[in-house]
Amino acid sequence: MTTKNKDIIITGFALFAMFFGAGNLIFPPYLGVITGEKFLIGFLGFILADVGLSLLAILASAKSNGDTEIVFKRAGKKFALILGASIMICLGPLLAIPRTAATTFEMGIVSLMPNFNPILFSIIFFSITLLLTIKPSKVVDIIGSYLTPALLVCLLLIIAVGIINPIGNIDKAAIQNVFSEGILQGYQTLDALGAICLSAVLIKSLAQKGYKEEKDRIDILLKAGVVAAIGLTVVYGGLTYLGATVSSVYDVNVSQSSLIVAITSALLKTPGKIILSLIVSLACLTTAIGLTSATAEYFSKATNGRLKYEQLVVGVCIFSLVISNLGVESIIKISAPILSLIYPATIVLIVMTIFKKFVENDNIVKFSTYTALFMGVLMAGNDLGINVPFLEMLPLANLGFCWVFPTFIAGIVGYFIKPNRNKEYEEDEERAV
Hints:
The chain is mainly α. Helices cover 76% and strands 0% of the residues. The chain has one domain (3-342): Amino acid/polyamine transporter I (Up-down Bundle). The longest helix has 47 residues, at 256-302. The radius of gyration is 21 Å and the shape is globular. It starts with a helix and ends with a helix.
């Protein structure tokens, strides 16, 4: 095997492990429970919102040579700063990183040691995260070479046992909008948001490995993205099926974090608890390492180095430690309206970055992005109980994409308005090239 192919596999494994964290482990089985015999339709929506958008985000990041600001800046410098910071705070200490620790404790530790102190566990978890993240050049190799293979072996073992010896019968779907529910569950994993920023960490690591040419780094990153996508699709499909096999036992009110514990215990009895504990610990730790590194890299660059990478890693770990003690269910409830708010605008900017050669008018980008953000505000209001009836009347609303049609119309309007070229965006893009 050539050195380049080896690096593609290691980088792909690292990307898989950075993606596969708390949400990736708990959402697919729950989706299987509530979709029952229609689990394949729900799974399709999940893959679209998770793996599909993640691959687009990786492509956008690769085209920007890992510079996340270029992805956002065409909509305006201030907007880029606000949206970029919001995404990184969500991916970092507010939602995603704390959720990794909370999930590890509730699913991996409590089942083995019910009386273990959650605060002490958080301290241990984030101390390990800190030690493995403080040197950014080592992050990818640590995850891709050592942690991911162990994670995959444990996951595939449980899935294989569940396929060979199903726990129960697959029941009818407990919900109506199966496909849109799959999309919503896919959103919750945060992978599409994380892909933009995690790609920056991987590109920096590839440069440190000696890949000086931009085309080589992009080529490796895109192929690594395919490796990660294949792994994620196989594992997601297996976990969704496992959930479907217990759809006659559990309903929509089952705790998401306790569901996979119950499934594993039923399949592998007591040894299953140990295996699950290892899976959860590896999955969540690798994601925490990747996101902590990405968050620190972003804010260090955003402040022009005034905040040092090492200082930010420490700060992220401490803040995440505090939030993690809220518990998994509380963190998931907090995340829903926030994700509804920022996802549409982020998706628009990812698509515009990929097709930037065909979108020369900056007003197309600005009008569509701002409209997507406005629609996100309305969707977040819906999540918080503020009823906005007309959202349900929009095209694609039943699929969870009510924001697409207004955003498309706004882009058309922007096309007919003469643009003022975004000089800062052009300068940054030239530097990336």
